[in-house]
Amino acid sequence: MTQDTLIRLTQVHKTFLTGNVETRALDGVDLDIQRGELVAIMGPSGCGKSTLLNTLGLLDSPSTGSYRFGEHEVAGLSETQLTRLRKGNIGFVFQSFNLIDELTVAENVELPLHYLGVSKAERKKKVAVALERVGVAHRADHYPQQLSGGQQQRVAVARAVVTQPKVLLADEPTGNLDSHHGREIMELLKELNEAGTTIIMVTHSESDAQYSDRILRLLDGRLIESETVRRIAA
Amino acid sequence: MFTHYLSAAWRSLKRDRAYAAINLAGLSVGMAVALLIGLYVVDEMSYDRWSPEAERTARIVLDWRVGERDVHAPLSPGPLADTLKERLTGVEAVSRINTTEQIVRAGEERHHEKQVFWVDANFFEFFSLPLNGAEASEVLAQPDRVVLSPRAAIKYFGTEQAIGKVLSIEERPYTVAAISDLGDRNLHFSYDVVAPLAARTRGPWIDTWLAFNIYTYFRRAPQSSFEQVEAGLAGLVSQELLPRLMDAMGREQEEFLSSGGNFRFNVQPVRDIHLHSSLEHELGQNGDARQVYVLLSLALAVLLIASINYINMATARATRRGLEVGLRKCLGAERSQVRWQFLIEAGLVSATAILVAVGLVVAALPSFNQLMSKDLTASGLAQPAMLATLLALFLGSAAASGLYPAFVMARFRPLDMVRRRFYRGREGWRLRAALVTFQFAVGVLMIIASLTIFRQIDFLLDKDLGFQPENVVVVENIDNLGDGWLGLKQDVLKAEGVVAASGASGLPGHWIREVYFVGEGGREETQTSWLVSVDPDFFDTLGIELSAGRRFEQDEPASGVAYIDRLAADLLGTGDPLGQQLDVMTIPRYPTVVGTFEGVHLAPLHQGMRPTVIRPLTEHPKYLAIRVTDEQASQVLPRIQSAWRRHAPEQPFQATWLEDDIAAFYADESQTASLATGAALLAIFIACIGVLGLGAFTVEQRTKEIGVRKVLGASAPSIAALVTKDFVVLMGIAVLIATPLGWWLMTRWLQDFAYRISLGPTIFVSAALLALGIAVTSISAQALRAARLRPARSLRYE
Description:
The structure holds two protein chains of two kinds.
Chain A: E1 5-18, E2 21-34, E3 38-42, H1 49-56, E4 64-69, E5 72-73, H2 79-86, E6 90-93, H3 105-116, H4 120-134, H5 149-161, E7 167-171, H6 179-194, E8 198-202, H7 206-209, E9 214-219, E10 222-228
Parallel strand pairs in A: 3-8, 3-9, 6-7, 7-8
Antiparallel strand pairs in A: 1-2, 1-4, 4-5, 9-10
Helix pairs in contact in A: 3-4, 3-5, 4-5, 5-6
Chain B: H1 2-15, H2 17-44, E1 57-66, E2 69-73, H3 80-87, E3 91-106, E4 109-119, H4 123-126, E5 145-148, H5 150-157, E6 166-169, E7 172-179, E8 193-196, E9 215-220, H6 226-249, H7 253-258, E10 262-269, H8 273-276, H9 289-320, H10 322-330, H11 335-372, H12 384-411, H13 414-418, H14 429-462, E11 472-475, H15 484-494, E12 498-504, E13 513-518, E14 526-534, H16 538-542, E15 548-549, E16 561-565, H17 566-572, E17 583-584, E18 592-597, E19 612-616, E20 623-628, H18 636-647, E21 655-657, H19 658-664, H20 667-701, H21 703-711, H22 716-750, H23 761-788, H24 791-795
Parallel strand pairs in B: 4-8, 5-7, 14-19, 16-18
Antiparallel strand pairs in B: 1-2, 1-9, 1-10, 3-4, 3-6, 3-9, 5-8, 6-7, 11-20, 11-21, 12-20, 13-14, 13-17, 15-18, 16-19
Helix pairs in contact in B: 1-11, 2-9, 2-11, 2-12, 2-20, 9-12, 9-14, 9-20, 11-12, 14-20, 14-22, 14-23, 15-18, 20-21, 20-23, 22-23
C-alpha cells in the first residue's frame, strides 16, 4: 500500500440472507483507490454497486475479507467505531438528495459539523463557505421542498463536503435530475475533485462516467473490468 | 367481494401482528372497564325497578327541626298509615314496616338478628315480593306466622325446606309459613325474618302519634300524584299531629314555628331511595348517585383514552397503506370499495376487541365484586342495557377507527399515493401529539388523585386518636345481661392476657350518642356533641390520659360528674372548666365537670370536630371494651367467649377488634382509593400503549431522517434522544395541564374531611416523575430500535 493509496479492499465478500435465500452481493472484490482519484462504478441493476458503495462508505461492513481505510482496518469494527471513523472522513451524496425536510438548507449543511462537535462560530463560517462554493448561498434559509432538484442536490453536495472529508461517495448523483442540471452537478464534482477531494461515484450514465479517471465495471458482485478513461483532449 | 375484503383485512392484520396486538390490548382493556362499570351502574339503577307498581309507591319521610337539631328520617307514627288511607283519596294502599333487634331461637340454635321485620299483613302483596309456600294475601294473616329468607332458613334449620317449623322470638312461637327468595331482585331493603306487625303488642308505641318508629309506605291511585298526597299530608299534620306534639313538648304551635321549629312529612318515591337517599335510620345500605357518576366518568375517561389510541394507531397505519390503496385504485377500485375495505377491517378488529373484553370482564368479575361489595354475574351482559352498550362499543370503535381512513384515503388521487405524495413531512403529527398529550394529562390527573386519596386515608388511619385502639376487644349487647354484665366483666378480668375492661354506652367504630351541648350562650345556642357513658375503668381500658382533674369512683352518684374535652371547654367560656355545671340537654340533672381530656377522637374523623362529653354510666352499657396484652392477643378471644358462655349461655356471643371497627368506618374511602388506583393504572397503561404506538409511528415516519443523520455521523444516543425528546416535551405539557387541575380537584375532595392532609408539592412531583418515567420507558424501546437502525437499510426505502 503506497502512501497514496486511500482505500484497499482485499477479497471482500458480502452476503445477505433473505428468508432462507442467500444472496451474494459482493463476491471477492479486490480494489485500490488512490488519493485524489475520481472513480466511477458502473454495472446493471443488482450487480452490487450500492452494496460496494455502502461498504466503502462504512455504512455496512463486509462479511469476509479486509478493508483498509487509510491506516485503519475496517472489517470487524463495531457500529460505534464505524460511526466515529465515518464522521468527517466520508461525505455522501445520494440520488434522492436525502435532505431533512424539517431543517433549512443551512441547517442541513450544518448537521455533520454538529455531530463532529464543531463550535458554533466555526460552523457558521464553514456552512457559508460550502454554500457559496456550490452556488446556493442565497437559499440558505429556505426549506428543501422550496428548491429545484438541481439546487437540492447542490445543497446535498455542500453538506457532503462541509467537513472536508477524505472521500466523497456519490450514489447516482444525477439520477433524479434532468440533463442540464445533471451536467452542472458533474461539473461541480469535477471541480471538487480537482481541488483535491477523492470521489467515488456509482452511475448508470456513460456520459457522467466520462468525468472520471477510472471506470470500474461490476457484474454479479465481481469486478470484471477496470479501465482508465482517456480524455479526449480539450 | 365481501370475503375478499375479509381475507384482505385478516392478512393485513396478520402481517402487522405487533400493531394488531397493541391495538387490541388497549381497546379491549378500555372496553372491559366500560363493561364492568356498566354492569355495576345498571345494577345500581335497577333498585325497585322490577315491580311495575313501584312507580306509584312512595314512603313517608319525617322532616323535623327543633332548635339546632334536624331530623330527616323515613319514620312516622303508627296511626298515620290508616289515617292516610281513610282521609286521602289519592292513596290506594298503605303498608308499614317496623324493625327490631332480636335474639331469635330455633331449638337450641340462637342468633342475633339485627333487623327483624314486623310488617302489615299486606306486605308481600304490596311490594309484589316473591313467596314460596303460601299466598301473599294470607301468609301473615295470623299473628303467629313468620316468613324467612332462604339464607335464614338455612341458618336456623339447616335447610331451605323450613315451612311448618317453629322458631321463637321473645319466647313466643312463630310458625314458618313461607320462604321468600328475593333472588336477583334489588330492593332498597332486604330481610331475613319477617313477622306480622300485629304480633307486636308489647308497648303502646305502635298506636301513638308521638312515637316515630314506623316505616310507612303508600301507593298512590293512578290518577293521583305524589304532590297531591304531600299536600294532603300537610293537612293531616296540622290537624292530628302538631296539636298532640305541642301538648307533649309543652310549647305553643306559633312559638314553636316562629323560633325556627318545623315539622312536616315529605313523600319520597321508592325508586329514588337507593341512589338518592341517605337519611338517618335507612332500612338498608343505600347506594350513592355520586359514586355512580364518578364511576361513569372513570369509565368514560378510560374508554376515551383507549379510543384515542385506537384511532391514532389505526389511522397512522392506514396512511402507511397509501401505496396499497393507490395500487388498488389504479387497478380500478372505486371509492366505495376502498371505503368498505377499511370499514370491514375496523369492524373485524372491534369485534375481536369486544370478545377479548368480555373475556376480561369474566376474569375480573370476582375481584371487582369484592371491591364493590356486589354480586354481579357475567350473565348480566345479556340484559338489554348491556347488549346496547356492547353494540354501541362495537359500532363506536369501528366507526372511529374506520371512518377516517375510509373517507380520507378513498378520496386521494391514486397516482399521488403510488408516488407517495399523499404524505408530507410530519403532517398529522400535531393532532396525534395533542391526543397523546391529552391522554397523559388524564393519566397524570388520575395518579395525582389516587396518591392524594391514599395519603389522606393513611393520614386518617394513622392519626393519633387520643387513645390506643390496638389490642382492644369489643363485646356487644352486654345490656341483654342486665346487672349480670358486672359479673361478666369480673370474670373476663380474670382471664389470662386481659389487662383492663370497661362497660360503655358507645365506642369508636360503633354507635355513639349525640346530644345537645349548651355553651355560655344558653339554650338558644346549642351545639351537637358526642356523649359516652362509661364505668371508671374506661380511661385505663382505652388508654386516655386526663389533662386535668380526677378519676371518678364506682359508687359516685351517677349523673353527678362529667369529663369534657377542649372543644367543650371552649364552649363553656374562658374560665377554668373544672367545677362548672354542665348543661347537656337530655341529661336531667346538671353534672359537675371534674376532669378534662384533649385530642380524643371517639367519632369518625370525617364527621367533623364536635365536643365530647364522658360521664359515668346511668344504665346498663351496650359494650364491654377489653384491653388485652399484645402477646396474648391471638389466644384471648376463646377465653372471653367462655366467660360469656358462663354468664349468658342463651345469648349469641359477638366480639370484634376495636381497630377493625374503626377501619370499617373508612371502608368507603378505601374503596374509592382502590378504584381510583385501578383506574389510574389502567389509564397509564393504555396511555403507554398510545406512546408506544405513536413512538413506533414516529420512528417509521422518520426512518429516512434517522438514516441521513446516522450517515452524517449521529451517534446512537443522539438518535435515541432525538426520538425521546419530542415525547418528553409532550409529557411536560401534560403535566402542566394536569397539575393545576389535579390541585383544584383534590382540594375540593379534601374539603369533605375535617382532618386532612395539606396538598404539598410531593404528590405532584411524584405523579409527574412517575408518568414521565413510565412514558420514557415505553418510548425507549422505540428509541433504541431507531438508534440501532442500520443507515444502509433505512436509506434503501427510497
